[in-house]
Amino acid sequence: MLLNIRSEVKKYVGVDIILRITTKDFHIAWIKLLLFLSLGSILYLLIVNDAMLYKTPLSQVIALSSKKKIYQTDNFNNKDYQQTQILKLRILNGKYRGKTVNISNTFSSSNAYDLQYHRGQQLFISLHSLEKNDDIIITGMKRDTTIFLITYLAIGLLFMIIKMHGFLALISVLLNASFFFAAVKLDVITHATTSNVLFIFGALAVLLLGITSLLTFGRSKQTLILFCSSLGSTSIGLLLSIIILTTTNYNGINFEMMGYVTQLRVPLYLAGSILGSLGAVMDVATDITASLFTLAYRTPTLRFRDFVQAGHKIGKSVMGPLINVLFLIFLAGTLPMMVLAMRNGNSFSYSFSMIMSLGIVQSIISGIAISLTIPITTFLTSWHCSRSKKRDVL
């Protein structure tokens, strides 16, 4: 009887401790959320009212009126309309700060070359004198508030959900972006030739791969395997693609659709294919490597064949969704141009060949690299895990 009472007391005490811990974690989570929202609100107000930091004249729409719509129909029966707005702007910075001006803005419903403005929006303007409103031109919208909100939300979610790993991911993104812009700048300054373009962006790919691998796994054997397998898969996939494209003489690929390119298009296209496939390859290689290392740590008696089978299953489960994700991202980027081309009387086959062929080929190159990643990463990881003892796996 006494033992039963003690066991019941222990049980209820344990439940009470769990409830206290859960309640404490709940309060901490709410405090973090409130701090996150409060800091975001303060920063938002500062950015909305940072007009004094800009040298370009900045104004805000405080009132507007719209004139009658003028409807139009083109030769392909596409219907559109034009409308003129009279905007009353209050200048927010510079020597004319606080003054108001009235200007007109003509826009179409398609917004192909123009925009419709709304009350409260902040606009950059070209302003020489308040006496002639005809000299005042809207040069663009102030978009830093939107960019800040998206960036702050992304960074906040990273820190709140995955904590330290989110910080490392942020560092990785910032470093990768910095090196990418440096590589583009180097390409522009040096007027890179075919071999130089591939060398610059090939070296960039190796650098990005090394940084991301180190920040993901640290200095470990996993990092070495991830680096070697990703580099090997991307290189072999690109080499096979170059052989196929050269053999077929690039038939069906319209490089002339790479608009505003002032250097050879083919090497620049291949450089983009390297960077495009690298991210997908690293995703697959990371999944396989991390899973097999965890499996080896928990079950050190597994043989080489067991690791190979597990690696292939993991690879097959992530390969299909990842290729589809890449393809859908590409489709989303080309959708506006496809709609525009087809609404102007072009056939689907012509629009597809002129607009989507370049992206389709890049998706296929990424698919080849992803397919090669599975056996290469599985073999390297299985070979290491099957030869290492539990304490030596990581």
From TrEMBL:
Q: Which UniProt keywords apply?
A: Membrane, Transmembrane, Transmembrane helix
| Entry keyword Transmembrane helix | yes
A Pfam match: YibE_F
Q: Does the keyword Membrane apply?
A: yes
Q: Which residues are listed as membrane-spanning?
A: 29-47, 145-162, 196-217, 224-248, 268-297, 318-342, 354-381
Question: Looking at the record's lineage, which domain of life comes first?
Answer: Bacteria
Q: What is this protein called?
A: Integral membrane protein
Q: Look up and give the organism this protein is from.
A: Liquorilactobacillus sucicola DSM 21376 = JCM 15457
